[in-house]
């Protein structure tokens, strides 16, 4: 095994990618310190705790359990040593805005029956679709996710071409799903996971049909205590490996290069041999690095397609909300208009598709007795005007919509309310334009078309997180940490 013994490394940013990288680098013998701008680790996977309520502020879906198992196995551990898991049933509930409701459960035969109710033969079609999704997942993960191919010539290898031959590499998700299902509601069920990738059915590559294997076959899980338990587990593993953490310590500048870095912070400078940046890529380049050390100019970042931001309501309410499942989606029967108002004609959506998370349906510990804990998330375009007056109006509109389309009227039962939106994402996470996720997974921003893990201008500086490969989401950021650590070991391991 290659060693980094004797090397000191500072990881700037304690998100999932940074925490993952820190574990791998420390395991290779490096002296690793993670500095985090905010009061807690986790990045966007933060936790809000107030008045007996505990909210996951960001990621709330535990998907791709195999990725977490592989991560902990790399250190001879198991996820169960750090947190417990509950398999959700239903995986999620969908309320369509025409008084229709669908539960997607772990029982595939039941789900096939549901599909059959909408379209004759759709049950068997679902089985064929999921078989293709499983194939894409297994090939894609092995050959194109865990193996980072950062140059075009990496794709010209005959073996790579053979592996890629069966993948749905071209076309959009919209076109791919239409090849299988005619009913618009079935198309929506197969595409809702695109929200987690920061795209729309029209701009996300068909390759991401592999997410249906994640959803239907691998299942949807809940880590006891919420996603913060996963963050705590990864951080605890890091401590066991020797990683040190400083919260409330933002980096204000990154100067120098390998062997002679200077990471400036309000508490004084750090002088590591190497640096890994887990801040948003654009923030690191435009705010922390000098102009001659930037791999991309301002025009590049301005030209990118960003994943949506979000309007979030964190709500503590009296009583139960039994109409809602742990994961609930509320969808217009035609959601194209909402996606257009995110990507084509940015504005606050007037007929939104949105998500409601109710962890208290599964976990009694996240809310006081006889109360419910939930948050409502509406995807919106990044960079919109975000004022208190707009938030007030939109808050009322969303609660009205929720009452009308799910039968859950919260308006007179709210005992705790917090809001989070574009300006908060920009302030708390230094996210460009207030995006909630980073760079969207469009065809021109997938794989080698995402910014690289190695700095283009500074030897010894690396990047990790959702803006790099393999991309957005907690599992992908976990893998990004492994990929970044591999780059460091390739360059400096002994």
UniProtKB/TrEMBL annotation:
<dbReference type="InterPro" id="IPR014105">
    <property type="entry name" value="Carotenoid/retinoid_OxRdtase"/>
</dbReference>
<protein>
    <submittedName>
        <fullName>Phytoene desaturase</fullName>
    </submittedName>
</protein>
<keyword id="KW-0125">Carotenoid biosynthesis</keyword>
<dbReference type="InterPro" id="IPR002937">
    <property type="entry name" value="Amino_oxidase"/>
</dbReference>
<feature type="domain" description="Amine oxidase">
    <location>
        <begin position="16"/>
        <end position="489"/>
    </location>
</feature>
<keyword id="KW-0560">Oxidoreductase</keyword>
<dbReference type="InterPro" id="IPR036188">
    <property type="entry name" value="FAD/NAD-bd_sf"/>
</dbReference>
<dbReference type="GO" id="GO:0016117">
    <property type="term" value="P:carotenoid biosynthetic process"/>
</dbReference>
<comment type="pathway">
    <text>Carotenoid biosynthesis.</text>
</comment>
<dbReference type="Pfam" id="PF01593">
    <property type="entry name" value="Amino_oxidase"/>
</dbReference>
<dbReference type="GO" id="GO:0016491">
    <property type="term" value="F:oxidoreductase activity"/>
</dbReference>
């Amino acid at each position: 095994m290659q060693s980094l013994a004797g090397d000191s490394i500072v990881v700037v940013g304690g998100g999932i990618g940074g925490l993952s990288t820190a574990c791998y680098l420390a395991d290779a013998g490096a002296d690793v310190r993670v500095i985090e701008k905010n009061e807690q680790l986790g990045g966007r996977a933060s936790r809000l705790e107030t008045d007996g309520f505990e909210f996951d502020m960001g990621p709330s879906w535990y998907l791709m359990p195999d990725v977490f198992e592989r991560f902990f196995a790399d250190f001879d551990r198991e996820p169960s040593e750090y947190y417990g898991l509950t398999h959700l049933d239903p995986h999620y509930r969908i309320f369509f805005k025409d008084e229709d409701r669908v539960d997607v459960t772990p029982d595939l035969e039941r789900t096939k029956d549901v599909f059959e109710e909408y379209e004759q033969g759709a049950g068997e079609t679902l089985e064929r679709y999921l078989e293709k999704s499983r194939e894409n997942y297994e090939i894609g993960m092995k050959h194109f996710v865990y193996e980072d191919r950062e140059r075009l010539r990496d794709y010209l290898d005959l073996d790579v071409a053979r592996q890629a031959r069966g993948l749905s590499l071209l076309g959009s998700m919209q076109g791919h799903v239409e090849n299988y299902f005619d009913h618009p509601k079935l198309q929506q069920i197969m595409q809702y996971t695109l929200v987690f990738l920061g795209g729309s059915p029209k701009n996300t590559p068909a390759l991401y049909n592999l997410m249906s294997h994640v959803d239907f076959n691998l299942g949807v899980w809940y880590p006891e205590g919420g996603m913060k338990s996963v963050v705590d587990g990864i951080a605890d593993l890091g401590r066991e490996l020797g990683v040190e953490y400083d919260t409330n310590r933002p980096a204000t500048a990154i100067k120098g290069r390998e062997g002679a870095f200077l990471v400036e912070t309000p508490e004084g400078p750090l002088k590591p041999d190497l640096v890994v940046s887990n801040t948003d890529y654009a923030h690191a380049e435009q705010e922390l690095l000098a102009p001659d050390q930037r791999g991309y100019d301002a025009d590049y970042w301005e030209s990118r397609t960003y994943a949506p931001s979000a309007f979030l309501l964190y709500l503590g309410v009296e009583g139960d909300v039994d109409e809602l499942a742990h994961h609930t989606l509320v969808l217009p029967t035609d959601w194209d208009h909402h996606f257009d108002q995110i990507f084509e004609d940015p504005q606050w959506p007037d007929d939104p598709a949105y998500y409601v998370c109710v962890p208290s349906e599964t976990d009694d510990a996240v809310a006081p007795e006889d109360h419910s804990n939930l948050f409502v998330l509406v995807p919106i375009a990044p960079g919109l005007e975000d004022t208190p007056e707009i938030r007030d109006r939109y808050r009322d509109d969303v609660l009205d919509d929720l009452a009308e389309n799910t039968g859950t009227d919260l308006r007179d039962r709210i005992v705790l309310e917090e809001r989070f939106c574009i300006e908060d994402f920009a302030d708390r996470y230094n996210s460009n334009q207030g995006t909630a996720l980073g760079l969207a997974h469009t065809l021109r921003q997938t794989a080698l078309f995402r910014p690289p893990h190695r700095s283009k201008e500074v030897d010894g500086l690396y990047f990790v997180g959702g803006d790099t490969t393999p991309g957005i989401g907690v599992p992908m950021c976990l893998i990004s940490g492994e990929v970044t650590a591999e780059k460091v070991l390739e360059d400096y391991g002994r």
